[in-house]
Amino acid sequence: MDFAITDLAAHFTGTWRFSRDIVATDGEPMGRVSGTVTFTPGDGALVYHETGELHLPGYTGPVTRTLLYHPDGARAAVHFDHGGFFHDVDLTTGRWSTDHPCRDDLYRGEYRLLDADHWLQEWAVAGPTKDHVITTRFTRA
């Protein structure tokens, strides 16, 4: 059973550890990332800031990402740090599915709150330039 919430900002604020697997749709591992995410309130948004280390065949290096969650109860509009819209999320039931078109590729995403301290996000990416699944598992630090 999924873990429902009523206040997205209150639930996510703080520090989380994450591990991310990138796998081709045929099951072949493509890469992995591990690191830390902080959710920090600021200027009407909940700022998601990710730092970690990416491991690909033949390459290992740092990664960062910043997203802006604009919360309204259990819902939020998620934007890239440059201001562009990414997707909506509504966790009143603890689960949410969403899509994000990226040029000719389509990202189909799912959020699942597993309990108070664990959640996951999965993106199935398909199109002419991409064909893989990105699964990220988060654990409250």
Please provide a written account of the structure.
Helix content is 4%, strand content 72%. The chain has a ten-stranded antiparallel β-sheet with strand order 6-5-4-3-2-1-10-9-8-7. The chain is built from one helix and ten strands, in the order H-E-E-E-E-E-E-E-E-E-E.
Compact description:
By secondary structure, this protein is mainly beta. The chain is built from 1 helix and 10 strands; from the N terminus they run αββββββββββ.
Q: For the largest beta sheet, what order do the strands appear in spatially? A: 6-5-4-3-2-1-10-9-8-7
- Got a strand count? 10
Strand content: over 45%
Computed Rg: 15 Å
Oligomeric composition of the shown chains: single chain
Helix proportion = under 10%
Question: How many strands, which pairing sense, and closed or not: the largest β-sheet?
Answer: 10 strands, antiparallel
Calculate the mean pLDDT score and round it: 96
Structural class: mainly beta
Distance between the termini: 22 Å
Q: Supply the number of helical segments.
A: 1
Rough outline = globular
* SSE succession: HEEEEEEEEEE
Low-confidence stretches: none
Which tags fit this structure?
4% helix, 1 helix, 10 strands, 141 residues, 10-stranded antiparallel beta sheet
